[in-house]
Design goal:
Two copies of one chain form a homodimer. Chain A is mainly α. Chain A is built from ten helices and no strands. The longest helix of chain A has 22 residues. Chain A is elongated and about 55 Å long. The mean pLDDT of chain A is 91. The first copy, chain A, binds a DNA duplex through helix 1 and helix 3.
DNA sequence: ATAGTTACAGAACAAAGTGTCAGATAACTT
DNA sequence: AAGTTATCTGACACTTTGTTCTGTAACTAT
């Protein structure tokens, strides 16, 4: 990828994240981003069709870091030789905390819907093979519940309770959701 | 309240809900609502300052119906003589299903954030006194988890699994969340 | 019933944002 | 060194926004 392209893309991401600390997502205009990133109008549209596409691209960037391929279900075979499921969850929590500053503003406000939606897509793949087989409750419900609960746990954590450690958060989660820890 | 005011307010609500089935919330303009409701421009602004305020008002209207005062925690004393907590939950589920058509579009898309936020405010009051006292997990987390899980349960139900009865949904919920049923 | 109040329609308005397009310059690739 | 690609500046028509004005119709209270 062209250096110039990388540089501009990054400038847009940085401006976007910075602005989200001052304004809400819906109040944020493309014009604001252009001014903050100090780029030409057409340059923005050369990178992203809309504000929503920009947000989605940013989410993907973040989650590709938070969920490295060895943590995803598909590759779990290598991983599970070394560690339990709750270890995988704790790993994810550490990665989330690293990106805390970028993520915080995305949980709240109107962009939360898109951000949480993207987060859940990744989580579905993490939790998909962790459900017990026999239950009177539909599998679809249990998977949705495990995923949604974890996503909301992250939101609760970063919103106002970041004093807890990743290990503590993990224990809170497994104490509240019927998912085996290993 | 003035008849004319009620009538116009209702026309706006109706137009708004109707439009949400064709367009997403963020793509919806005040102009669209004005045209659909067939009212003057200044009339809209005489009722609501912004699109968001309109949405919030609609949410309040819906939830004041879904959560009648006798179901809310404050008034539980009268209620609990006759029925268990899971009965109260089932009552809520019936009310939700009644308003299904109005609610469905509000769960998804960009307005979901505001809608879910409003829903949770009501739910916090319903669940506040239903938590067990002694637990190693912080009370704040357990309350947030119970509320979020229930809100997401409703979303799951109406999104793609409305074939289940309120009683079934209630049983799925209590099977997955550590909250006493009575 | 009459007088006073309140809500609405219609139209006009400036201000701001949107998305696109052309031409010029600079940075990159081979 | 030549060709490609990304960016920049400026401009464009268009839509949306929120406000203000005037006249008219509907309501309320005495």
């Amino acid at each position: 990828m062209d250096r110039r392209r990388k540089k501009t893309r990054n400038a847009i991401f940085t401006a976007f994240t910075a602005l989200l600390e001052k304004k809400t997502y819906s109040a944020l205009t493309v014009q604001d981003i252009i001014d903050e990133a100090d780029i030409g109008r057409s340059t923005f549209y050369a990178h992203f069709e809309t504000k929503d596409e920009l947000l989605k691209a940013l989410c993907k960037d973040i989650f590709d870091h938070v969920f490295p391929s060895e943590i995803m279900s598909e590759e779990k075979h290598d991983f599970s030789h070394h560690s339990s499921f709750s270890d995988r969850i704790t790993h994810i929590l550490y990665h989330i905390r690293e990106k805390q500053q970028n993520i915080k503003g995305l949980f709240t406000g109107e962009c939360g819907e898109i951000f949480m939606g993207c987060l859940k897509e990744y989580l579905f793949r993490v939790f998909d093979d962790r459900l017990t087989e026999d239950s009177p409750v539909p599998r679809s419900y249990r998977l949705d519940h495990a995923v949604s609960s974890f996503a909301e746990t992250l939101r609760w954590w970063l919103r106002e309770h970041s004093e807890y450690s990743p290990e503590q958060i993990s224990s809170f989660y497994f104490a509240s959701v019927p998912i085996p820890k290993d």
